[in-house]
Every structure is written in C-alpha cells, then in structure tokens.
Design brief:
By secondary structure, the chain is an all-alpha fold. The chain has one domain (23-176): Endonuclease III, domain 1 (Orthogonal Bundle), CATH 1.10.340.30. It is built from nine helices and two strands; from the N terminus they run αααααααβααβ. It has a two-stranded parallel ribbon.
Length: 195
C-alpha cells in the first residue's frame, strides 16, 4: 500500500481524490471555477463532506459552466436551499452566482481563469520545499494566498479568504504540497519556487 499525505483518511473517496486529482495542475476554466466554488462551500466543514456532494453540486450548478451559473435567477438560488444533496447555506449558494459573475469579468480582463491564477506563479507549479512531514507542517495562509485572496475580494468575489485560496491552490496544482514521503511527491519534476 503506497504512503500518502497525512491528511488522507481511509475513505475511498478521499484516497481517489488524493491519488487522481489533488496537486495535479488544472488549466481548464470550468474545473478551476468548480474548485473555487467547492472550496468556498467547504468553509467550516470537512473536504470529505464536499467531495461526497460534488456530483450534486455539478447537477445543481450546471456542471459549473460559468456563464450558466452567472445567469442563475434568484428563484434558482432559492430552490437550491431545498436541495439536500448540497450544503444548504444561503450565503454559500448565493456566492456561486456572485463568483461566476466576477469570474466572467476576470476572464474579460485576463482571457481566462487559467491565465489569471497561473499568472501568479508565471505558469509554474510551486513545489513546497522542504516538503511537509506532518499535518502541522502545512501552511494555512502563506503570502501567495494572502495576495490572491485580497485581489479576488477587490474584484467582487466572496468566500475567498486566504485559507480557502491556499486550499484551492493545492487542489488545482498551482502549489504541490504532497508530503515528503507521499508516493506522489516524487512524481513531479517542477523546480521549487518560493512561496
């Protein structure tokens, strides 16, 4: 059995997510938007809770097609509050539309979400060095996530605090935070950059 990052539980959903998604570079705007919404939905909850509801989120929020989410009506958002398949928090549900609209504006300026988010690291994955050895070694809010969070807030996004954004950077592979003994930490060849 391979050694994985210390945050991975024995739940098969978590293992599958870690092994196939977490820390792998994402450049597709739809997927980048999906992670932005899901990371915001996680606030105050476990990531496993969100992963278990992910397919329901995709169904409810038009498979995270940004323009379709931006066009959701107040009635659509109110109906979502009755959907037991997602996290029924009024502010988090409303933030999906708000962040979709802010994303469209961002795309107008930068050409894509990919250009915006990866522009912060000049298109390179930041490999944490030294690699984390325990849960306590993972940063919560490094300067990079502080800067991106502040910029997104100025641009009208919400549920984008620094902790959420750092989790987002890890999830989308902008930051490679696999632990020193994780079998995936040796799978990446990007040169380390400073956070």
């Amino acid at each position: 059995m391979p050694i994985r990052c210390p945050w991975v539980s024995a739940d098969p959903i978590y293992i599958d997510y870690h092994d196939k998604e977490w820390g792998r570079p994402v450049h597709d705007d739809r997927t980048l938007f999906e992670f932005l919404i899901l990371e915001g939905a996680q606030a105050g909850l476990s990531w496993l809770t969100v992963l278990k509801k992910r397919e329901n989120y995709r169904r409810r929020f038009h498979n995270f097609e940004i323009a379709k989410v931006a066009a959701m009506t107040d009635t659509d958002l109110a109906d979502a509050l009755f959907d037991e398949g997602i996290i029924r928090n009024r502010l988090k549900i409303a933030s999906a539309r708000r962040n979709a609209r802010a994303s469209l504006t961002l795309i107008e300026e930068f050409g894509s979400l990919d250009n915006y988010f990866w522009g912060w690291t000049e298109g390179k994955t930041i490999v944490t060095s030294p690699r984390p050895k325990s849960l306590g070694d993972y940063a919560a809010t490094p300067p990079l996530s502080d800067a991106i969070s502040n910029d997104l807030k100025k641009r009208g996004f919400n549920f984008v605090g620094s902790t959420i954004i750092y989790a987002y950077l890890q999830a989308t592979g902008i930051v490679d935070d696999h632990s020193h003994d994780c079998f995936l930490s040796k799978a990446h060849s990007n040169r380390p950059l400073n956070l």
